[in-house]
Amino acid sequence: MREPVAQARVGRTVPFRDQSAPPPRAGDTRPGYAGLPPAALGTWLTEQGEPAYRAKQVADALWSGRAATFEQIVQLPGPLRARLAEAFRADTLVDSEVRPADGGLTGKALHRLADDRFVESVLMRYPARGQRRARATLCISSQAGCAVGCPFCATGELGFWRDLDIAEIVDQARFWRRELLATDERVTNIVFMGMGEPLLNTDAVVGAAIALSDPARFGLGARHITISTSGVVPGIDRLIDLGAQYTLAVSLHAARPSLRSLLVPLEHRWPATDVVAAATAYGERTGRRVTYEMVMIGGINDTTEDAHAAADLLRGRLAHVNLIPMNPVAHTPWEPSTPARIEAFATVLRSAGLSTTVRRNRGVEIGAACGQLAAELSGQPTPAAVARRRKLLVDKSATALELAGAATH
Ligand code: SAH
Ligand code: SF4
Which of 228, 232, 253 to mutate to test the pocket of ligand 1 (most atoms within 8 A of CB)? Predict the structure, then answer.
């Protein structure tokens, strides 16, 4: 059996191509191949007087990762390759840079889009252990930036630029499939936990999830795809109607309303009780256990009261809780909770019958938390701005904790 060790492809930095190259065509209107409805290319080829089987040749080459451009599909006649490239983009990611971490087990890619926006994807390898086969989990972005503005999140700090389209989302997975081909590895899981709030870009995210799970396209089982949301109830309802087997992850972070309002501003619009009700309905519709994510911030949301509040909210539901020590980000005064605090928190949840795990942070050294690389690239805020922001958070969290305390006593 092949030993899944750190591999050269992810283990070295792959820099952007020529930085002095002309900027990508802003407003490139050619549709991305990966975002086309399945029959569209066949129709286009027929209109061009080409045999329909050419569509399968294109699909085989582009979805398998053997080709990244139409030019590389050697089975096609040269003039057809050129016409395809005029009409479509084989890849919507104009350029990508990979930075390794964890001795090559983690790779973080920064992707440049046609309008010069940046998004990130992160590949995390989990080597085989005992009976458990090796896994490679890919974290992808759904938006450039994010409008939700969770204060512990580097993407939240960046603000919102725009939604990604289907092809821009799927092309992150195709990028890594090509990268891993050289080492005979596969992406085994995809999580929508990169930049952006997937359920505020539901059409594209659902379209991308369908393409990723379609056996004739990317071909990853729906159960291996996780959609993470900070709590957009209409988006969860949409997933319920879809009835597919995607794993749903809910970013809960705190059960007490005043504290959750600070950590996840969407709480004002869709309170945790409504979010958990919708997620529970999703679990009942699909039979899938819902994952609740809690980023653990020292002295903020890791107290015994918070553990009991989360246990009360989730008790008896088809739920799994994931506790994630916060990745430090520059603009917050906050620190991750201590391992002992996280264990104590987990014990309360387990006593309430909730299956609970603690996630080890991956790629901290390359800023693998949500949006951190893109934040670096967009320029650091001035020290004065960081200091103001930190002071504001100290004040706001003191108020939130006071309010939360008043509500429980
Ligand atoms: N917007 C969606 C999905 C992207 S964020 C959501 O919020 O669920 C994916 C996950 O990364 C979320 O659970 C988020 O809370 C977590 N995250 C963001 N910033 C983090 C940080 N500084 N440390 C640890 N996890 C973080
Ligand atoms: Fe957006 Fe998720 Fe970051 Fe919150 S944690 S700002 S919802 S990306």
Answer: 228
Q: pLDDT grade, residue 16 (50/70/90)?
A: low
Surface-to-core class of residue 342, CB atoms within 10 Å of its CB (0-12 exposed, 13-18 middle, 19+ buried): buried
The full DSSP string for 15-41 is --S-TTSPPP-TT--SPBGGGS-TTHH
Q: Which ligand lies nearest to the CA atom of residue 362 in the structure?
A: 1
- Which residue in the block uniquely carries the two structure tokens 């029959």? 39
| CB of 143 closer than 6 angstroms to any ligand 1 atom | no
High-pLDDT (> 90) share of the chain, %:
73
pLDDT in tens, 195-249: 999 999 999 999 999 999 999 999 999 999 999 999 999 999 999 999 999 999 9
For 320, other C-beta atoms within 10 Å of its C-beta total 17
Is residue 143 within 8 A of residue 164, CB to CB? The reply is yes
Q: Which residues are annotated as catalytic?
A: 120, 370
C-alpha torsion 243→163→148→138, nearest 10? 60
Pocket (CB within 6 angstroms of ligand 2): 146, 148-150, 153, 155-156, 196-197, 230, 251, 370
pTM: 0.91
166 touches 208 (CB < 8 A): yes
Q: What 3-state class would DSSP assign to 332?
A: coil
Q: Using CA atoms, how far apart are residues 320 and 323, in angstroms rounded to an integer?
A: 10
pLDDT one-digit tens code per residue, 157-193: 888 999 999 999 999 999 999 999 999 999 999 999 9
Cβ count near 68 (within 10 Å)? 17
Q: Is 364 helix (H, G, I), strand (E, B) or coil?
A: helix
For the stretch 245-277, what's the b/e string if a residue is b when 16 or more beta carbons lie within 10 angstroms of its beta carbon?
ebbbbbbbbbbbbbbbbbbbbbbeebbbeebbe
Q: Grade residue 378 by pLDDT with cuts at 50, 70 and 90.
A: low
